[in-house]
Amino acid sequence: MNRTLAALSISAALALPGTSGAVDYSDDIHKNDYKWFTLNLMQSINNRIPFGFQDDTYFEMEFGGRSGWLDLYGYLDVFDVLNSSNSDRNKPEGSDDFADNFFFKFAPRFSLDGISGKDLSFGPVMELYISTLTNVGDNALFEHYIGLGSDVQVPWFGKVGLNTYARYVRENFGAENEGEWDGYMISTNWFKPWLTLSSGDFVTYQGYLDYKFGASKISDDINRTTTAIEWFNGIYYHTPQWAFGYGLKYYHNMALFKDGGFAGDTTGFGHYLSANYKF
Fold it and tell me: What distance in Å separates the CA atoms of residue 55 and residue 33, rounded to the nearest whole number?
């Protein structure tokens, strides 16, 4: 299994005393508020999405921000936005084949520091959250996650999100664990500006690592697996209005489908190109 530098840095940082950058809510719970919203045109190449959906041009609405004790991130992907016959998600007229039209991720986190009005930071841990996540596809995928989240101060990376969840499966392509709690996920994410130009434009290393494990209720299914990894590494050039990026993503048993099973190729590297317009 692969591990990111961020994950290794987090592990090291947790052993360091006195490095916390606590967030203070004692006088005004809204003083750290912000929001952002982008429209993204994405091109995936050799993507390891199950059932052969590897190459596609799609549209993404991505958003996030902070309002008091609520921290929010999410996006909506609309696939095959150009209705192109070259897309793996294109459904020719009259075809009986299925293809997802969208994928929605919604991830609110509720700050325990903000709700309690107390400083709960310790060591490199800046803030604690009740973390939630919902993934929805329009073709038999609907899953919820809930757990404990944090913002952690990591050397060089700065603030990194670190969340641990339990997983509830509402819909899962007809798997036996539908309607059950099954498995866990550890998730990290980062946004690191590492080069700033005289114009004010800057370059970032941004990405995430999701490690799913312990999905024991599908362990007897020869086409499923109990562990999965998604590891995205993006290099983006940012202007005040635009961002242009390339992402290299590693998949291991994507979405807990065993590589080479009935879902096809679910392990390996994929590529992403992105043009983002910022509001």
Answer: 37
Are 241 and 206 in contact by the 8 Å Cβ rule? The answer is no
Which alpha helices (DSSP H) does 119-269 contain, by range? none
Residue in the structure block whose two tokens are 């946004």:
191
In degrees rounded to 5, what are phi and psi of residue 218? -120, 15
Place of tokens 């050039």: 237
Residue 27: pLDDT band (50, 70, 90) is confident
Helices (H), 50-197: 112-116
Are 105 and 135 in contact by the 8 Å Cβ rule? The answer is yes
Which residue intervals of 32-161 are DSSP H helices?
112-116
Q: Which helix (H) or strand (E) holds 44?
A: strand 34-45
What 3-state DSSP class applies to 268?
strand
Structure tokens of 47?
């993507």
So what's the pLDDT on residue 93? 61
Residue owning tokens 């967030």? 23
Helix (H) or strand (E) holding 13: helix 5-13
* 48-70 residue pLDDT tens: 998 888 999 999 999 999 999 99
Evaluate if pTM is beyond 0.85.
yes
